[in-house]
Amino acid sequence: MSNVKVTDKIGIPIIEHMGAEILEVSKGRVVAKMPKEPNANHVGTMYAGSLFTLAEFPGGVLFLDYLDGAPIYPIVAEMNIRYRRPATTDIYVDMQMALADLDKMKADTLANGKAEMTHRQELTDESGEVVAISEARYVWLKA
């Protein structure tokens, strides 16, 4: 699957207004892009909030795709981001999670009503340089 509309996957229109694109979705993987424009800040680099958004929204896409209608609500409970260098190009994230980890999370949620995990990922520029590193704590709740 390629170039999927963000609103088709998670229904948050503001992300699409930022120009974010989902480039690939497969079980346990989401590749997404945030364009520099219209996300440039007052010094000509990418706005920190846009980088944060790029780090955050692929989790929702990945989890909803994986859960495929299961009675579970995935929620980001905490997220930290470290900005390593100015983002001067379009920025990419390749979020990947092992299916075995997702299977365990799903089983634990269905059995106990709640489960959580932490995931770290990198945001890269067009040359592959890491511009930011995020770490998120995700909570899944049984519906």
What is the name of the CATH class? Alpha Beta
What share of residues is helical?
Answer: 25-40%
What portion of residues belong to β-strands?
35-45%
Order of helices and strands: HHEEHEEHEE
State the CATH topology: Thiol Ester Dehydrase, Chain A
Strand order of the largest sheet: 1-2-4-5-6-3
Number of strands: 6
From the N-terminal CA to the C-terminal CA, the straight-line distance is 28 Å
What is the mean predicted local confidence, pLDDT?
Answer: 94
Molecular shape: elongated
**Which stretches are low in confidence, meaning pLDDT under 50 for 5 or more residues running?**
none
- Radius of gyration over C-alpha positions, nearest whole angstrom: 15 Å
What does it look like?
The chain is α+β, with helices and mostly antiparallel strands. It has a single domain (6-142), classed as Roll (Thiol Ester Dehydrase, Chain A). Helix content is 31%, strand content 38%. It contains 4 helices and 6 strands; from the N terminus they run H-H-E-E-H-E-E-H-E-E. The chain has helices spanning 6-10, 13-17, 48-67, 99-112, and strands at 21-26, 29-34, 72-83, 91-96, 114-124, 130-142. Strands 1-2-4-5-6-3 form a 6-stranded antiparallel beta sheet. The two termini are 28 Å apart. The mean pLDDT is 94.
